[in-house]
Amino acid sequence: MPDQPILVTGATGKSGSRVVRQLRAKGLPVRAAARGGEHVFDWTDSGTWDAALEGARSAYLVQLDGTKLVRPFVELAVKHGLQRIVLASGRGLDDPGYATDTTGMLDGLLDSEAAVRESGLEWTISRPGWFAQNFSEGFFADAVRAGEIRLPAGDGAASFIDAEDIAAVVVAALTEDGHSGQVYEVSGGEAVTMAQAVATISEAAGREIRYVPLEVEDFIAEMVEQGLSRDDAQAYADMVEPIRKGTDAYLSDGVQRALGRPPRTFAEFARSTAEEGGWAV
Question: Which residues form the NAD(P)-binding domain (predicted)?
Answer without folding.
Answer: 10-176
